[in-house]
Write a structure and sequence with these properties.
GO terms for molecular function: homoserine dehydrogenase activity. Belongs to the homoserine dehydrogenase family. By secondary structure, this protein is an alpha/beta fold. The chain is built from 22 helices and 26 strands. The strands form 5 sheets. A 9-stranded mixed beta sheet has the order 3-6-2-1-9-11-12-10-13, sandwiched between helices. Strands 22-24-23-21-25-26 form a 6-stranded mixed beta sheet. Helix 13 links the parallel strand 18 (330-333) and strand 19 (354-357). Helix 17 packs across helix 21. It is globular. Bound molecules: nicotinamide-adenine-dinucleotide (NAD) and L-homoserine.
Length: 596
């Protein structure tokens, strides 16, 4: 059987840049959320949420909490009061933070870079410690966004004709974010803080303080009392940039725009009780993320095979009934395997419990039964990580929907397989490479599923469902095993200017029939899939108009996969919260009285 598309050449030659440009979103993370080094992973998740929604992100970051003061104090101690030199020193905190943020994003498989002010043509005028932004080379940023999902920008600092570099005054990262939104045409900036909006008074000190849903720039300047930098509010009004003030992971925000003040209805729901089943490569990452939000989740004892191997025995169990507890709101299934896992998910869904899973084997095999149970009870079933790990390909298909008329999907969609081929071409033996993939947490419990193409076939079966709406069982998808690849073949391909790849492909033919297959192919080095390294996944999605979209990410491993699972959990949490307060969107226009 020939799996190649007739029009493959045309498909692969087309530049992904010809597809619809992604929406751009400017997010700002201040030192109220970047307090310590361990805050970077949670912040990376917040950015990932926007990428899943199909946006490109400019993430503007502050220094870690306390670092700017520490630098300024150090400067004063060592050399006294020389503003231009202090500005050079103080900005180091933001440069440091931007690099850490880009690294945290890379860990979960997001293509991120950071740029220094001189690389972005970011210029300011004024006093060295209190300058105002005047120029930006927007094309330089947009060019970076062609090949990255995120550009991380150090806030608070810019170049200066006289002083070389300067800072923008305390809270200056807000100003950087507003300026970038205006110059990049985003017209909206989301400032992520440790509060979920602007209140009539500091809610940490005054429990009677009320949150604004919306307020004008002038009101914001009065009410925010330093929460938003004053210069940033003035710049936003002048440049017609809408400001949102929001907490991490929140559905809510206070909007600052040219609108009258309006109060927000309280939006508080009970914590979700989570039953986590499995604490292996992926489950341990998800547990870490869940524990990071004790304000949102209560966790039942986690299901594992050998509780005594875990440090806190009491929090683990090998008893499924104990793990499920009385009535969890959500079951997170990460035990793997097709039938037992599917039975657990079916039973949960039947009783109205929401389910999040990464298990392509179970969902591909029991797709109809699982969805029928969810539909009957109204419970949600989410499985973003089942295809692509942290690469949000299912979300892309859902966004394109029926209207785009997807014609074909091809991809490198097994991290283990790609890792194996990469190692073989470096001269490793097959067994050494498999053992390493297992050690790194990429491989399935039985790595034969990765090696013989079964895992890719499960993923294709799910892609076919989501893209074409038809059933194509895994066992009807022909596949070629990686066992057929030798070190010599991998190296010979490289010598010919090709790379071997395990390619999964599904497509609609002219009669509307769906085909799919998995095969090992030599791709020329300039093929869009050829550059996928190690556990990376890449997908090419072509629609009826011939437009092609290329999606990159990490397809396997703890953090990319756990990030996708946790993003499903957070989407569900936000959805339930909004559902529990249907009046939220329609909060009344009530002028607020200051309570302090
Ligand atoms: N590892 C990845 O990179 C990755 C990526 C995407 C999707 N997935 C999917 O995520 C799921 C979990 O994968 P993983 O890599 O974490 O697997 P894993 O083997 O590392 O972890 C599974 C855990 O579940 C436990 N378990 C299995 N059956 C159990 C049972 N009956 N009772 C108690 N404990 C049980 C195992 O002991 C193990 O600790 C699988 O469905 C896999 O296909 C994994
Ligand atoms: N074993 C799978 C996990 C992600 O689905 C892989 O290597 O791609």
């Amino acid at each position: 059987m020939n799996f190649k598309l007739e029009s493959e050449a045309a498909m692969t030659q087309q530049d992904s840049a010809t597809a619809q440009p992604a929406r751009l979103c400017v997010l700002k993370f201040g030192s109220s959320v970047l307090r310590v080094e361990s805050d970077y992973p949670a912040t990376a998740l917040e950015i990932y949420r926007h990428i899943r929604d199909g946006e490109k992100v400019v993430a503007v970051v502050s220094a870690l909490g306390g670092e700017t003061d520490a630098l300024l104090n150090q400067g004063m101690r060592v050399g006294g009061d020389a503003p231009a030199l202090l500005a050079r020193l103080a900005r180091v905190g933001e440069l440091h933070s931007a690099a850490l943020m880009a690294l945290a994003l890379t860990r979960i498989g997001v293509r991120a870079c950071t740029m220094d002010p001189h690389e972005m043509g970011l210029m300011a005028e004024g006093a060295p410690l209190d300058s105002n932004l005047t120029g930006l080379d927007a094309d330089a940023i947009l060019a970076k966004l062609d090949h990255h999902e995120v550009v991380v920008v150090p806030g608070f600092t810019a170049g200066h004709d006289e002083y070389g570099v300067v800072t923008l005054g305390r809270g200056g990262t807000d100003l950087t974010a507003v300026f970038f939104a205006a110059r990049l045409g985003a017209h909206r900036v989301r400032l992520i803080k440790d509060v979920d909006g602007v209140y009539t008074a500091d809610p940490a000190r005054n429990p009677l303080a009320e949150r604004y849903a919306e307020l004008s720039y002038g009101e914001a300047a009065k009410a925010s009392a330093g929460l938003i930098q004053d210069k940033a509010i003035v710049a936003a009004e002048a440049q017609d940039v809408l400001i949102e003030v929001a907490a991490m992971g929140s559905a809510e925000a206070t909007t600052v725009a040219n609108v009258p003040a309006r109060s927000a209805l309280p939006l508080k729901g009970p914590k979700l009780r989570v039953a986590l089943l499995g604490c292996g490569a992926v489950g341990a990452g998800v547990l870490d993320y869940l524990k990071g939000r004790p304000d949102l989740f209560e966790i039942n004892p986690v299901l594992v095979r050998r509780p005594h191997l875990h440090e806190e025995h009491a929090d683990f169990t090998d008893d499924l009934h104990r793990a499920l507890g009385e009535a969890p709101d959500l079951v997170v299934e990460l035990i793997g395997g097709a039938d037992e896992a599917a039975e657990i998910m079916r039973s949960a869904l039947r009783s109205g419990t929401h389910v999040v899973s990464a298990n392509k084997a179970a969902i591909a095999k029991h797709y109809d039964a699982l969805h029928a149970c969810a539909e009957a009870s109204g419970a949600s079933l989410r499985y973003s990580a089942a295809v692509g790990g942290g690469t949000p390909v299912l979300e892309m298909l859902a966004r394109l929907g029926g209207s785009a008329g997807i014609q074909a999907i091809e991809g490198v969609m097994n991290g283990t397989g790609n890792f194996l081929i990469s190692r073989l071409s470096e001269g490793w033996s097959f067994d050494e490479a498999v053992a390493k993939a297992q050690e790194l947490g990429f491989a399935e419990a039985d790595p034969a599923a990765d090696v013989d193409g079964h895992d890719v076939a499960d993923k294709l079966s799910l892609l076919v469902r989501e893209a074409f709406g038809v059933a194509l069982p895994t066992d009807r998808i022909a596949r070629q095993s990686l066992r057929e690849v030798t070190t010599e073949q991998a190296q010979a391909a490289l010598a010919r200017g090709e790379v071997l790849k395990q390619v999964g492909r599904c497509w609609l033919d002219a009669d509307g029939r769906v085909h799919a297959g998995v095969q090992i192919e030599g791709l020329s080095v300039d093929h869009p899939l050829a550059g996928a390294r190690n556990e990376e996944n890449r997908f090419l999605v072509r629609d009826a108009a011939g437009l092609e979209r290329c999606l990159h990410g990490k397809g396997a491993g703890r953090w990319p996969t756990a990030s996708a699972v946790f993003a499903d959990i957070m989407d569900l949490q936000r959805g339930l919260l909004l559902k529990s307060a249907p009046a939220f969107e329609m909060g009344e226009a009530i002028p607020l009285l200051r309570t302090a």
